[in-house]
Amino acid sequence: MTETLHIVGGGMAGSEAAWQAAEAGVAVVLHEMRPQIGTFAHQTGNFGEMVCSNSFRSDDDEQNAVGLLHWEMRRAGGLIMATADAHRLPAGGALAVDREPFAEAVTQTLRSHPNITTDHGEITDLPTEGKWIFATGPLTSARLGEAIARETGADRLAFFDAIAPIVYAESIDMDVAWLQSRYDKGETEEEQKAYLNCPMTKPQYEAFIDALLAADKTEFHEGETAGYFDGCLPIEVMAERGRETLRHGPMKPIGLTNAHRPADKPYAVVQLRRDNKLGTLYNIVGFQTKMKYGAQADVFRMIPGLENARFARLGGIHRNTFLNSPTLLDHEMRLKSRPHIRFAGQVTGVEGYVESAAMGLLAGRLAAAEILGRRLPPVPPETAMGALVTHITGGAEAKTFQPMNVNFGLFPPLEGLRGGRKGRKERYKGYTDRAKALWSDWLAAPEAVTA
């Protein structure tokens, strides 16, 4: 009998960690406090529930670092990527999924695995014995967060994350909106028409910005400061940085032609991406917000085509918790003060569904190997997986550590390739070719037997 691995948190990281360890032959108990204890953002008790976007972002494994991470996770038999592929929606080159069937499938797969049992009680303290992975994510419960803070001897770091609203498709005026992916990207007609586009003239855009800036916003609690992750800024925060910011960000009009008025060039465009397979729900891309609910409906109905929009979910903002991992975790993601405990996912300071699941994949494999009396070789830092884990366990500057998406800036440079924008395509292909070879070698490498 091998030792049981306890995993706390049934999000992307915890679900992937449980799957990897169970597939290696280790008995796993997956602890998830939902649905007995809910959170601000979750709607169900399912494992792998997507609470913000329904997108895993770019699936390009030759020119994009997150696409490369997709490839590495698929190559490692990852549950999250296999389930995402089975519930894929058209998204113009991105990997978007039908979120409810996706989470239901992850839940069913884990519950039916013979090596996994589930427990729905809340874990409120750090255990003194056993093998554990904490993958509680950005919404770590208050009591557990306090226990982590006591153990690490440091105040919890936090930033604020926002979620975007979801609109019923039948309430969108298709005499105004049209279907098109930017630059008609995609290999099929369905991919090339994966987004709904709502055009704005300059006066409409200016009026929208005015309303956005004047709208009632959610106030922070006493003692909280408004630190945001730059990859998920509320739209009103972007607007406060300059009136043209949104027009050069989520509302940029380039690569789009109004199907109703081809000769008219929109000043700005709001895009909506399909949120479920039926095509009955669309989320407003990049429109994370901290506006109060009443204000959201008023402001978003100023968007041409959304004048009569009905919302399946309005946006919101919540506090995210993460560790100063470079000072607290060792190279195998173990808590230095309690090495029987590993951390994985967003609580370690990676940002995004894919990055969280990737760190769960790695933590699950590392923990399983340790329980089975084996040791895995270090993950090559030239891979997407290795670049991320290197960043959070020592590669980042501890004093300025903030949540990070995977990106080629984390990779060791390639010698002999041209720098700058003109050499980018060749350089990115070089990064991905090198990573794929090294990741394949790492997966095939024999595990060292420990005493």
Residue share in helix: 25-40%
Whole-number tally of structural domains: 2
Gyration radius (Cα, Å) is 22 Å
Task: Supply the number of helical segments.
Answer: 13
Broad structural category: alpha+beta
- In the predicted model, the low-confidence regions spanning at least 5 consecutive residues are 221-226
Outline the secondary-structure elements.
Blueprint lengths: L4 E4 L3 H12 L4 E4 L23 E4 L6 H11 L3 H8 L1 E2 L4 E4 L1 H13 L4 E4 L11 E4 L7 H11 L4 E7 L2 E3 L9 E2 L9 H4 L2 E6 L1 H13 L20 H6 L27 E7 L6 E4 L8 H8 L10 E3 L2 E7 L2 H4 L5 E2 L2 E6 L9 H19 L2 E2 L8 H12 L28 H21 L3 E2 L2
Parallel strand pairs: 1-2, 1-7, 2-6, 7-17
Antiparallel strand pairs: 3-5, 4-5, 8-15, 9-13, 9-14, 10-11, 11-12, 12-13, 16-17, 18-19
Protein described:
The two termini are 17 Å apart. This protein has 2 domains: 279 residues, 3-Layer(bba) Sandwich (FAD/NAD(P)-binding domain); 158 residues, Elongation Factor Tu (Ef-tu), domain 3. About 1% of the residues have low confidence. Helices cover 31% and strands 17% of the residues. The strands form 5 sheets. The chain has a 6-stranded mixed beta sheet with strand order 6-2-1-7-17-16, with helices on one face. The protein contains 13 helices and 19 strands. With 451 residues, the chain is an alpha+beta fold. Strand 1, helix 1 and strand 2 form a beta-alpha-beta unit.
